[in-house]
Write a structure and sequence with these properties.
By secondary structure, the protein is an alpha/beta fold. It has 25 helices and 21 strands. Bound molecules: ligand C2E and magnesium ion (MG) (2 copies).
Length: 619
Amino acid sequence: MKHSTVRNSLTNVFPLLINGESKDQDAVSIAQPESARERKLLQELKDSEQRHALTLQVTNDGIWSWDLNADRIDYSDRWKSMVGCTAREIKHNPVEWLVRVHPAEREKLRQKLTACRQGEIDRFEMEYSLLHRDGQYRFMYCKCLAVKDVQGVVKSLIGCQTDITEQKQIKAQLNYVADYDKLTKLPNRQLFIAKLSGISELKQHPNYRFGILCLDLDRFKNVNHHYGHSTGDRLLSKIVDQLKSCLKTQDIIARIGGDEFAILLAGFNRVDYPLEVAALIQQEFSKPIKVAEHAILISISIGIAVPQLVDNRLWENAPNNLVESLQNAEIAMHQAKAQGKSCNRVFESEAYLQHLAKTKSQDDLRQAIEQEQFELHYQPIVKLESRQLVGFEALIRWQHPQRGLILPAEFISLAEETGLITPIGWWVLRSACSQMVLWQQTNLDAKSMFISVNITGKQFSQPYAGDIIAQILSETGLNPSCLKLEITESEIIENIELVLSTVEKLKSLGVQLSMDDFGTGYSSLSYLHCLPVDTLKIDRSFIQGMQSNRSSGITAQCHQLELVKTIIKLAEVFNLDLIAEGIESEAQCATLMELGCQYAQGYLFSKPVSAVIAATLLK
Ligand code: C2E
Ligand code: MG
Ligand code: MG
């Protein structure tokens, strides 16, 4: 290399280091060296520059220097060759560098460089991938240093990058050996557990469920013994292929022991899904597997565990839950083996069983809405004296495809908890209103009757509840005065503010309001004056207590009678209609009439009946 080239190259690479001296050197080169001392100095300078140039040539690192004033980067020849370019092909701008950095890392590098330029940091180190001309990315380890002047202003950045692709590959190979099973290429137990621990990073989703299966090949030792280890190995590979065919892409399968596998089922909706997969696997292995000239029948014992991923506690503790579930699945697998092999066993903890039952009911309830499995029964409400029909209470029933008719006590609270009560409740209202209109079209007497519909506090306190009810009335064509909405006293009080605003709207429409199960909740006496209710329904428990009192004469039951009397008085004072619920005997009927109660509902008159039977009662 000629002297001038060496100097240029050094000035380019270390402009600031050199700049300070360069003026003097120029001065030296312009003025002819006269003294022996000057000649000696010049010679030393030449030698030093040559050494630097040679260092640059022999170093395996790519070096760059960024003059911030001129916004010019000088890349060493080695730097350029690291991206497959010749010395002339790379220009003096930062773009040549940044554009080659992998897009995922580019911003980070840019930020670090900016921080260095602005003096926020003095240096940084970073790994990134750099695009080579051959289209492949190479891993680079980069170091950068800010060079400041005497005032502390950053004048330039200098740095180098080392190609660490080979080290990375070796590390990856070592990791692979440590984490994967050589024969089946599946993750081993260690990696499987690590993957479970990282699962909480997965996207949160209310229906995102997990299940863990632990599989053990029954009597696999016999296979090795009988057919030899190489046949055993080939069989294992085939088994893995078959297992994979039963799984989805997001599921993870691992070989956690010689003849043991673990599977993470991830992101399914149906709570039974892990059981379905286990059954599918059993079915898949019901046929012999061909290995060379042999047909080998392999049976599998499967343990299943579903983590206790209950509600929002799920994500707080997901990794522990999953790792614990692997242990539970192994326990269940050993139980399956003890049970006689070739079968599945679910890890059963009390909490899990409860969770399973609840989630199953939720799934069923959702399906019931989709498949319209609900129906309404109607219970007559009569005038006590004449026993004349004055209206019906609509009561929901669930026609479950397997379990038959289910009463509301079994599903209303679950529907409330899950929020499913809203669609169910509006369906009830719409159906009851339509039914009433149908009856009124065929029976004139029905025009003066009402239909009572139960509404939960949750529905009632929904914003726009009043508008929804108004819309249902207008769509079905029911006269609003023929609709009575029943809401229990405790639900009114829990949501009093919201209820009041809906009530106002309903009153303006002319809809009637009933306070259901009166006397069972908090004392709602203080609310009676501010709530425009039309009817009180005395709860069944009072009626039953009152009746037993007459025959047994126990003091507590005497109180019940007194309570009924008080409620009846209260209704008189507030000018409210009164319906006694759950009348089962003539004796109850007589007492209530004596006390001045006007209306009643109960098995004595009729149980809740289907719409068809209700129509005959109307006639
Ligand atoms: P509720 O509104 O107090 O309805 C009266 C309940 O008492 C009905 O039970 C009815 O069958 C029962 N009953 C009536 N007369 C007698 C009797 O003489 N003896 C006895 N032992 N029981 C009698 P059901 O239909 O099982 O409903 C229970 C509760 O479920 C209802 O109590 C109501 O709170 C709720 N419910 C029913 N349908 C709906 C609905 O469509 N929406 C909402 N939100 N809740 C509903
Ligand atoms: Mg009711
Ligand atoms: Mg009631």
